Amino acid sequence: MEAFELLFQGFQVLLTFKNLALMMIGLVLGIFVGVLPGLGGPNGVAILLPLTFTMDPTSAIVMLSCIYWGALFGGAITSILFNIPGEAWSVATTFDGYPMAQQGRAAEALTAAFTSSFIGSLVAVILITFLAPRIADFALKFGPPEFFAVYLLTFCSFVGLGKEEKHKIVISMALGLLLAGIGMDTVSGQLRMTFGWSELLRGINFLVAVIGLFGISEILLTMEERLALRGHTAHISLKVVLQVWKTLPRYWVTLLRSSAIGCWLGITPGGAIAASFMGYNLAKRFAKDKDSFGRGRIEGVFAPETAAHAAGTSALLPMLALGIPGSGTAAILLGGLMVWGLNPGPLLFVEHKEFVWGTIASMYLGNVVGLVLVLSTVPVFAAVLRVPFAAIAPMIVVSCAIGAYAIQNAMFDIWLMLGFGVVGYVFKKLNYPLAPLTLALVLGSRTEDAFRLAMIGAGGDLRVFWSNSLVGSITTLALVLLFWPVIGRAIGKVGEILRPALPGARG
Amino acid sequence: MSADDTDTAPHDARPVVGTRSVDIVASILLLALAALLGWDAWRVGNSWADDGPQAGYFPFYLAVLMAAASLYGLVRALLARQAAGEPFVTHGQFTRVMQVFVPTLAFCILTQYLGLYVASFLLVAGFMIWVGRIAAWKSVLTSFLFTAAMFLTFEIAFNVIMPKGPLEAAFGF
Questions:
Q1: How far apart, in whole angstroms, are the C-alpha atoms of residue A127 and residue B120?
Q2: I need a labelling partner for B60 at 20 to 30 A (CA). Which of A20, A301, A394, A418 fits?
């Protein structure tokens, strides 16, 4: 019950006029970036991060996480009204959400989406409240080999479970780790990979890269596709809201299943997208009339939204407890923590209790306030999408430049941002995944430090990663995940051989 | 994915370059980058010193990994003949991408010399007038309001310093 007490303290930290005001600002800005084409959760948080540089860490994270909630809510608006998924994990929401809007049931679909987002997040936040301190407690016993093993697990799960071509995932990851190594080596103080270029001494800042990779490249892509923003209007009345809420108990199985899938996949890095599709597909598989999915069925909105938001929220769990972000946005929040001088990881729960519990409390409050806010202001934000793209695109470019410059006050970073923008554009068109690159950039130096400290401790013996049962099982699990495609196929083959006479046993 | 072409010029679907060609070039560039970074890591030292791995140890093996993966990608792209027909970008798309890339480039150059706020005003106004074909007074007004809002937010309210040029200096900032 210690968690309750600490959470209560967290609420006390939160309930000041300043923090509540920042929360509202964050939510509004978040919905705004979520609705705008060419922006979304990670970009919005990255671009607005400079605003928080002069705040104290707690206020900063309250505002940033509210931007994140807002962006998640905003993404649903574009998916349903305009058939444009703001984020990859909103894709599944368009399957039934857009048909509903076409049938004039937009308000119903939006209410369903917002409500299920709320439920998904709430389940994940409850999970964080009770699980994160335990994990952090456990992780306090970790030494460098254990930490390296956990990082290895993170990267291996990307390679093994990623849907893209494997060599592209490996390239993206290795490139990120290499770029993170540029500049002064933290252990020996030697310069490396700078090629005598003084601008590279500082290294490549993770946030600059993210702003370029996501913000600028997204503008280029949006312009290329020339999205036709012709959507449906919606006005949500209290009657519709109550109507939809009345049907909620009927879908409790779907909601619960999607929440569970979301929480599980959210903790696994890169899982939010998979979670939304899996939530949708499972709801469809268990439904009695499968054909009604894709034609505007409310359950088809409930299932993916709940899963996506549960995943998006629980992605913050490993970030808080272990210092390992479970999603792109979590990675950016982690970058923010470092800017404010906090060292993400298990020690955060010991050294910065106030910060951690303030953050968790803000997740509860931000979700409730966000739900009310978004339900009441949909028409305003839907109108944002009717602003011509020619006006929005240059403003986003300017915001990106401000964000990139503010981090280190360096003009070079603006150029770097532009360069990363082009790289991001080409990578996206060639199907190179950007998430491993982002994650590698933010975790690169910590991974290397953990590896080198482990090696120094063990005198260069690689067996240190199997030296006790804990580190050994994490390392082994990492390797299993890395070779999962091969192993999974082998298991499938064995299954087929064992049960040849059961047609249709495997879907 | 609905690509409506009702309002502006007809869609030019001729490819500028095929996906396979870009894939090959990208693989070669990534391979070259891996070689360059790997070479530097080797120069710094990629083996074991008395006190553990040298500074270049970790990057060197990553570069090897990246080079191997790029080489695999290159070979695959070279062997995949039939996929050559798919365009990486069409003429129409390329024109539109350049419509936003070139102004962004100009904006970065201007920021270096005139400061961010003047460059921002010029970018937003110019883009709206020439690319968006929005009435000049609307564009200039929107751009001015946007830039002023940015200035007030970052420079005044949040004390985040941006590059400034002669205009701001004239006003004493």
A1: 44
A2: A418
Separation between Cα atoms, residue A110 and residue A107, nearest integer Å: 5
ipTM exceeding 0.85, yes/no:
yes
Whether A389 and A89 have beta carbons less than 8 Å apart is answered as no
* Host H or E run for residue B87: strand B87-90
- Quote the minimal CA–CA distance from A390 to chain B in Å: 5
Q: Could you read off the pLDDT of B12-30 as tens digits, one per residue?
A: 777 888 888 888 999 999 9
Residue B90's H or E segment, with its range, is: strand B87-90
Which pLDDT score is estimated for A480? 87
Q: Is there a contact between B63 and A174 if contact means CB atoms under 8 Å apart? A: yes
Confidence of residue A37 (pLDDT cuts 50, 70, 90): low
Residues 6+ apart with CB under 8 A from A31: A70, A71, A73, A74, A77, A370, A373, A374, A377, A381
**Other beta carbons within 10 Å of A161:** 19
Judge whether B15 and B84 are in contact, CB under 8 Å: no
**A390 contacts in B (CB within 8 Å)?**
127-128, 131-134
For residue B48 the two structure tokens come to 């074991």
d(CA A435, CA A438): 5
CA-wise closest residue to A205 among A482, A478, A499, A441: A441
How far is residue A431's CA from residue A166's CA, in Å, rounded to a whole number?
A: 11
pLDDT in tens, A78-97: 778 877 776 666 778 888 88
CB A393 within 8 A of CB A399: no
**Confidence class of residue A260 from pLDDT cuts 50, 70 and 90?**
confident
Phi, psi for A483 (deg, rounded to 5)? -100, 20
The reply to whether residue A390 touches residue B128, judged by beta carbons under 8 angstroms, is: yes
Cα torsion A330, A481, A261, A131 to 10°: value is -60
Is the entire prediction scored with pTM above 0.90?
no
* The pLDDT of residue A426 is above 90: yes
| A175/B30 CB distance under 8 A | yes
Q: Does A387 touch chain B (CB under 8 A)?
A: no
The pLDDT, as a whole number, for residue B137 is: 92
**Domain locations along chain A:** 2-153+202-411
Q: Which helix (H) or strand (E) holds A191?
A: strand A191-192
Which pair of structure tokens corresponds to residue A171?
A: 């390239």
Q: Which residue has the tokens 């803000």?
A: A362
Cα distances (Å, whole numbers) of residue A403 to A4, A350, A400: 37, 31, 5
Phi, psi of A191 (to 5 degrees): -90, 140
A108 to A102, A259, A304, A307, A406: CA distances (angstroms)? 12, 21, 16, 19, 42
pLDDT at residue A228, as a whole number: 54
- How far apart, in Å, are the Cα atoms of A411 and each of A52, A182, A324, A402, B115? 20, 18, 30, 10, 10
Integer-rounded Cα Rg, in Å, for chain A is 23
Give yes or no for a contact between A120 and A259, defined as CB atoms under 8 angstroms apart: yes
Give the residue among A443, A85, A430 at the shortest CA–CA distance from A273. Answer: A85
Token couple for A46: 């990255």
Q: How many residues does chain A have?
A: 507
